[in-house]
Specification:
The protein is an alpha+beta fold. About 35% of the residues lie in helices and about 20% in strands. A 4-stranded mixed sheet has the order 1-2-4-3, covered by helices on one side. A hairpin with a 4-residue loop joins β3 and β4. α1 packs across α2. The longest helix has 19 residues.
Length: about 100
């Protein structure tokens, strides 16, 4: 799915940019990705292995969607990770 990560997408009319950040500029050392609602940006560290980038993208996308819905589940990392894992599995096996 690494090749299927978009450069941008729309949620409720807002443009969400997706950026791959070089490791040397990555400031969130304990994270592989980050959703920034203030900047409408999903960032993914370029050192994440290609086979995991899709999972990381889906995880941050779920945060973005839940935030757009004003759903408090966006703060529940277990829920977000479980939902993102299933979303990634479904998306990456589409025929």
């Amino acid at each position: 799915m690494a090749g299927l990560i978009p450069h941008q997408l729309q949620i409720l009319g807002n443009t969400i940019k997706v950026v791959i950040v070089p490791r040397r500029r990555w400031r969130r050392l304990n994270l592989e990705g980050h959703w920034s609602p203030n900047r409408n940006t999903i960032a993914i560290c370029d050192s994440v292995p290609d086979e995991r980038k899709g999972q990381v993208f889906c995880h941050e996308l779920v945060h973005a969607i839940l935030d757009a819905m004003n759903d408090p589940k966006s703060k529940n990392e277990v829920f977000v990770d479980n939902f993102a894992s299933l979303l990634h599995q479904a998306w990456s096996t589409i025929k």
